[in-house]
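Standup notes
- DV: blocked on the single-chain target, sequence here:
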Amino acid sequence: VWDGMALRGIRVLEFGGLAPVPYCGLILADHGADVVRIDKKTPPLADFFSRGKRSIVLDFKKPRGADVAKLLIKHADVLLEPHRPGVMEAIGLGPDVALGINPNLVYARLTGFGQTGPYAHKAGHDINYLSIAGTLSLFGRAHEPPMFPSNIVADFAAGGLMCALGVMAALLARPRVGGQVIDNAMVDGSAYLSLFPQRAQGTMLASGPRGTNMLDGGSPFYEVYETKDHKFMAVGAIEPKFYAELLAGLGLDGRADLPAQMDTERWGELRAVFKEAFSTRTRAEWEAVFDARDACVTPVLEMEEAAVHPHNAARGSFRTGPSEPQPAPRLSKTPAQASSRMACVGDSTQALLVECGLSEEEISRLVSEKIVFIPPAAKL
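- DV (later): unblocked, structure below
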């Protein structure tokens, strides 16, 4: 029975890996897909993305295990895999084999450097993919080394989220073209996310080195300022009308000696004035000032504060117990929904094998051969 979720009826086979692939699987699960995670018997080191999924413990590197994986592939719409090029082919589960079994399969390969190129077989992490994409060079203060923005950009935006977009596009095209392979490189995705600063080079937005431009820490009206209580306010008062509101909120609108907003030679002076002004009140006091003004000035919230901020609370942007973000974006007719059920390793091994048509005797044999594992609590 269709319950209004966009991907209900779609089965995703997720080969367990680090953050990007599990995050992609979580996005698809939030939109209603039946995401089946192939796990090892040992739980993942950091299992942050298991909500709404089912788990099967399968040693797919053994020939008999690969045969079981092929049964799962036959019943899947999407396959997600995080391995370096050639790994899936070596165990007989590469895209040629998989699409031969299931011509309508969307086979998504999510890696750092992609399936081709000199770096395709190299190891890497978020910081490395950003560096090769040219994106890392955008972050940081003038005259300082580039500063990486946690591991959000490559792993999750250019990796998991971009891959989910590719999967949905491939599913949309499937009635016309059948299955296909997605080569989702986090380097490619990071570069794609950087299209705006790439295009802005040489314009008034990005005419100088890192940290000297309007949107990268160079301008005093697009900046973070410390408050009296050692918290912070974010200022993004670019347009003249918002800048005027910023000055009024800071009590500086009557200062005749204030440098002009776009006098780049005097941005240092203007920043010092703003810094001094923000240091005279607490963050809560500045919130009260700027909540009443349309100045593009907002508090910098800690993660634990975000869930209880009045705006986020009014929209229900976070789930409670424990607090975590709700799925986004919000669809009016087929909204995503974060499941409260978390996958446990092997919790659906037996059920999935039954769904694939295996008999009780065949399942028992797989268990005895240590091809699959069924936790005692998960036995039917």
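- Follow-up: Residues 17 and 127 are 18 Å apart (CA to CA).
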